[in-house]
Amino acid sequence: MNKKFSTLMTGALLVGSITVASAQHANKSDWEVPFRTQDVTAARLDQIAVTKINKFDSNKYYQLVVNENAETDADGENAYIRTPKVLVQTRDYTTGKLYLKVVDINETNELGAKLTSSLWKIDVQEDASNGVNFRFINKETGYPLTFDHENAVAGGTLTADSKISGAVEKTLVDGCIDRWTWYNIAEKTTGTFDAQKLWAFVHDTNSKKVIALAQNASGDVVAVEYSDADAGVNMADQNVIALTPVVAGAKVLSANDINSMIDADGSWEYGNSVAGDNWNKAIFDVFKSGTTNEVELAATYDYFVREKGYVAEEHDYSGLEGNVSISDYAGFNIALRVKKASTTEPDSVLMVSTEAYEADMLNPEKSPNLKLVNAPAPDYTKLTAYNARSIFKFTYFPTQDSLVIEPWNASSMSVAEYQAGTAWTATSLASATTKQFYNSVNEGKARGTGAMTAADNTGVKKAENEPVAITIAYLSDGSVVPTVGRARTYQGGAFASAGLAINSKGNGKAYVTNKQADMLIRIGFDHDYSYLARATKDKKEGVDYYFVRLSTTKAASQGEKRVDGSYIVSDFAGHMYYDVKENEQDFNHMPATQWVVKQLGCDNRTAPQDNETPRVRITNREFANVAFEGQLYNVKDAEGKVVAGKYYFIDHTKDANVNYLEGLSQHGAAYNFLNCGDTIYFDDVKDATRGYLDLSGKQVTDTTYVFNLIDGLNNEMFLTADVNDTLTIAKEQLEFQLDNATSVTANGWTKTIYRLKIKDANQIDNDYKYIALDQNHKFVAKYEEDITSDPSLTMAWFAFKEDAHANGAHYYAMILTNAKGEALQVLRRQPISNEMKVDDLCTSMGTTTTTIFDIKPVKSHIYVQLAENRVYVPVNIQKEPYQAFLYEDAGSVYSAGKGMNFVGVQPKNVTPEAPSVYIDLAKKDDYRPLYMFVVDPDSVPAYTFCKDGNIEAPHGLNPSCGHEESYDGYLAGRFMINLQDSVDLYENINKLQNASIFKHNNKTRLAFVEAIHKGDKLYILKSDYTLGLKAWEKKGSKTVIAIEQDGHKYINPKYFKDNEAFLAVIDVTKADDANKAAFALRRVDFKNEVEGSEDVDVKDVQFYIETAATGYGAFKGETAAWLKEEDGVAVLAQKANKNGNHEGSDDAINEGINQATPFTFDFENATTPTENETIGTSAISVVATDGAVIVKGAQGKKVVINNVLGQAVANTVITSSEATISVPAGVVFVAVEGEAAVKAIVK
């Protein structure tokens, strides 16, 4: 906080008053960042006529005359413009926005040209297309003349004075276009620059458009746009604004002007003559004439240029007795009082001393070299010749930024008097009258035209109208000292013949010469225009969102939430407030704490048209309320240096009730904006994860949840329903399903809302019991049909919003929404009853009153999860409670003669007993694993094969020829599939005419078909191919099996390359309708469920065999199909078709899961599908037994046993004639040293 801003409001002005334009929102002393809100009217010039130029000097500031008239000067030269209109840049101090305006230079009202706002530094740059282009930087703001082509309006036909018709708003100064086409040269060898239209191409060159300047009825500048064709060459076809660069006229300064340093930044700060009060002071720079090189004055004279500085004060002598007409001496009324180190220090002022430098060496033809000193302040109630030596007139020349400082009395004794040591008080100079003061340029009289004598001490020999002013002298030792003296020369000749003109003003201001005098030096104010530092927030790579934080030195307020570093966030209702992040919160997971910063306007960062500090729009990430739109500014420290990363802005347009001193002190939708009294900074959101519980898929359909209350007491309390079905908090856990998960967008944020459904009593029946809101604002558990029929009940929708985070866990508040996702209220636990009721959203997040839960998923076990030792093994799939099991049926009355092996259900103890099926894993999944069932399985591990080899050739399987290729292992056999798509196993079957082949009782059947499981795919063979070794094993077919000379058999890899042998290739890992070969095992009930364990004893678990007829089933069981036994035939209990119509019809039978047949697994009595318990290899035998392999006759040999994945499960050297090696259940490959590997199935 900068203390000096308090003095304007509370301090007394000792040196006159300040004229201030409308300052409704003056700065307050305790704002975080002060900014300029006052516009000092230091602009009205005393010399109205302005001079045109013939070249541009980058060190000077020019005025820009708008549509100049043809008025000439008295000599007939068109070098002056008498009453011009000029272009100014104005700031709206309620918003900080900049605009351009056309104003009369001599207006005295608030529309007049403020001096610094009418001055422009003109930067000329070479341009390949036009020769040069121009950039105009305003002295008042430091900001260039810039427009955004997106803000330009269609120009149309303008009036002769460039006015656009209709009510057209002024155009914001901002954007990418800040270099303009104007003249095509930077210097003229003859004449001066006349009026020329200003325009620029839109930086998107493909648009072929240009923009230029016009004015509306109020004189505000409007950016207008034309096509390239309509504009004409150099805008010749349109009456857009033409500008003429001119030298600004002179101004005689008041004390207020001096103290404000000619409207520089900080110009509203005034003070008295005592140092330490932080008010302004005038200090001067001295430069060599015509250059920017600073003059090094002798160290003794730091008082003038560097040390204490001065405060200007005005003295009015118009009423003094004997005074001449004050207009003759107007402007000579300024005293410069020295800033004091303390109040006890005597008052002193800048004065022209009566003493001279090196008086004994003075030469009448040289300056008298009068000393310029700080001397005791005289009594200004009287005007004496001595007092007048400390009274000055200040004339400011804005274009040169130069001061001519003329003392009222700079009379000097003669050389003889100096050499004789005569006291100044002993000369006639001491008693001279006002008319005899010898330095009035206003009186216009020549004095001392003859040789100076001791009796004629008439001062400096000078010409009429020639000023005597502060200059410098070079002493004999080479040092440079300040002094007063006459002008040395005038450009083109002596002052006596310069033809100077004096312009009389009726307003009592001083006469001003309209020619320049060379005083050897250029005096300027020692101040820096500390412009507002425009800023923007650049988008970082990988960063989409930001935290907005407060920077303040104030004590904590607003419930200890408004402190340095606090966050600006939105509550549950989207209302902004200050918040301090608690240890148990992670704002990265809370979108209401995050903000989107979007840069506005044309986005072009390449020269010559650029915008390095575009405006921004700051929007809450969750609620999409625009907290700020406009220009950011960098904060500066006490030395005027930018503080990296800290920003403020100007915006006083909000509700009049807003207290800008207290920041976000008002709460509600009407106050949802950043406060301009705040200094803010941004932090990156490093992990912009979504802040709501967003679940989908199996997380919704196959998972239930318990709501564990988080209250810091570790009481293990849960959300449940009591005996009256009221939603409450208790020790008992109740599992909920997050039902009807719906992604919605509300207030700009996309989240998932749910209905809260109580877990069904069993896995089959859907209870449809949901949480609803009753008329007493209580939450109750009711059946869906009751909710829809009872007007006092409303189905409740919930969003779960993260409100805390600790130890890796996320805790959520329950937000009641409507079906559109719009937040209505937040749920809170009642302190005594523990019931859950609704409460107002307008409550800060993270407060102790917010009820939050750890929403924990519960392993649903809807589907059977087989342990590793229950896969790749044979099993009987038996029907319950009847003693029957699934088998491969090709000969029953329902299957014989139909050309394929169907799935049947055979009673036990029927001779011959059908073989068991082999369990193959299609997809491992935590929710819904998929299995396949195979008969006559044949597993082959990964192998290499040489395509140059075949059944007869020596290369073939696992060669070492050097050009073999690698192939994954596979499982071949006859796989159970769902015939819903009537897989065409045989090309001679017409499915449309013989659809009944695939049905029983109009329900879809299942069959075992020859196929190969490799990787994620199941390759189903065409009807004319077989897995048999010989063609006669399947009449008219070709085998895909190759056999090596050593007896190994395998699928010839060529078939996997061209797929010519396969009817279909199914991805058995996908959960879609196309997957008819993989099955899920859906539980009938929750019996035998081991909590927290996947390894459930499945032999006692009843399940339904679920297949993807039209998709995967959920709790309701509305989309899947299940196996059912009818007449010893396996069919689907859902999805049937009209006779003869495979695509289905109105006669389709649509049975539910209640008609499906429950099954269980019998592992103990299963027979191996390949019947190869004992495999002989020469004199060595391999016997598969329960959990082990017995190897006989291999003493001293190495034995390696691999599983179907090629992974070694045993590697040992046999030390006895019979060895038992423990291995996991399933298919294994046993390789005895020197023997071919053999396959065994371990139970």
Automatic annotation (TrEMBL):
This is DUF6383 domain-containing protein. Keywords: Signal. It holds the Pfam family DUF6383. It comes from Parabacteroides segnis. Residues 1-23 form the signal peptide. Residues 1169-1242 form the DUF6383 domain. The keyword Signal applies. InterPro entries: DUF6383.
